[in-house]
Amino acid sequence: MSFTVAIIGRPNVGKSTLFNRLVGRKLALVDDTPGVTRDRRVHPARLYDLEFDVIDTAGFEDADAASLAGRMRAQTETAMDEADLILFVVDARAGVVPDDRTFSDIARRTSKPIVLVANKAESRSSQGGMLEAWELGLGEPIPISAEHGEGMVDLREAIVEALGAERVFAAEEEDEAVSLAVAEPLVGEDIADPDSEVIPEYDATKPLRIAMVGRPNAGKSTLINAFLGEERLLTGPEAGITRDSISVDWDWRGRRIKLFDTAGMRRKSRVQEKLEKLSVADGLRAIRFAEVVVIVLDATIPFEKQDLQIADLIIREGRAPVIAFNKWDLIDNRQELLAELREKTQRLLPQVRGIQAVTISAETGKGLDKLMEAIEKTHRVWNRRVSTGKLNRWLEGVLTHHPPPAVAGRRLKIKYITQVKTRPPGFVLSCSRPDAMPQSYIRYLTNGLRDTFEMPGVPIRMALRAPD
Ligand code: GDP
Ligand code: GDP
Questions:
Q1: Which residue of 283, 336, 348, 443 has the fewest C-beta atoms within 10 A of its own C-beta?
Q2: Pocket of ligand 1 from Cβ distances under 6 Å
Q3: Rounded to 5 degrees, what angle do the CA atoms 380, 382, 386 make?
Q4: Which DSSP state fits 255?
Q5: In the chain, how long is the greatest CA-to-CA distance?
């Protein structure tokens, strides 16, 4: 189950710009040919990990003036009918104008959740408009800049909150399952021998690929330096790696490591010059390069939104995450903070329950051994494969004690489970009516797998398939 979003508001507030950003295109498709099918008005969109449909309401402002008000009203009402969630957009720079009130009066009649979006909020002059937006009685305005892509994490959070996490993430997990089934056929993956007990394909002689990611100033460059020593940074770029990125090879206690580094990090670390922030694209490249991604957090200001956004990205890309709470030397109340960080880590990142997290000081070099151990451990889990025999003996027990619920009076049947891939572990569950299986039960099975077969801290993929 996915959800549908309608973007409404008076002309010129930036609806099409937001639409394009969510749908990922330069221009909204404006098609006023009569008889355009309904489907063409709904476009798949993505906001970080959220996947949904957006109703395209672009173009209707062009109607001639006489019928404008009527058409806009009709369009808005139709879009609201079709949607599960309404993004009501105002222009924070212009403040609230009478047309906004006309639209908000229409919007308020729906019982559907509404997120109030204050667009064009990239400049300070939008503060007044932000305050005025409260007057619309549609709740807290979320400041964004559709044009510059700012505030998108807050928008994501507001959507999750308005719709309810259950609804939103049910949609997400299903999409993941589909991508496992469709986009990743078993090419290059060995299927476990049904009767073998343990299949340790782990090859510790291959270099382990690592990337350090995190907000600017979290201490990534300092950490890389601490690991490598200044002179090693001069290692040249390698063939096959993109031009502006570089990988550095080194050994850690006999283990070969390939570290993703960006030109920016090296320059900065060497001459402490102020450089522009690494772009999201740089971060994504680092994540895709790596097997294990170390999320470097500044322990004095941990779990800012951007940190969670990075963690989301790593999990979505199926990489093995490890958290390094850096600058631990600056912390006085260590026990207290540690307890708080543990609690927050579990609560904020339930998709990777049991994630390895270590405290370090890149500056003093404390905790680097521990961090490397955590990296290796997570890497092994990420590579883990469980034999089909073991999986199905486990499944049998689960089905006896906690069988799947009945849906519409019919019992859902699960036939067998098999692991179809590693890096991260991916499983296929063969069951009757995969689309009827409740997400809560799938989550229950995933958690059970995680605990029983010791796969803490890595993303686990679960796809459901009807028997052939
Ligand atoms: P719509 O009529 O509501 O669909 O609005 P558009 O998306 O066509 O935007 C109206 C105008 O506002 C265009 O000139 C956009 O470039 C501009 N605009 C949209 N979003 C922003 C923003 O975040 N900041 C600024 N400064 N301008 C924006
Ligand atoms: P980056 O932007 O993530 O690469 O961060 P940098 O490595 O440039 O570090 C940002 C600032 O934090 C610098 O002033 C570092 O000296 C400082 N820093 C990094 N690691 C530590 C640490 O473990 N302890 C302390 N006290 N400062 C640190």
A1: 336
A2: 11-17, 61, 119-120, 122, 145-147
A3: 85
A4: E
A5: 78
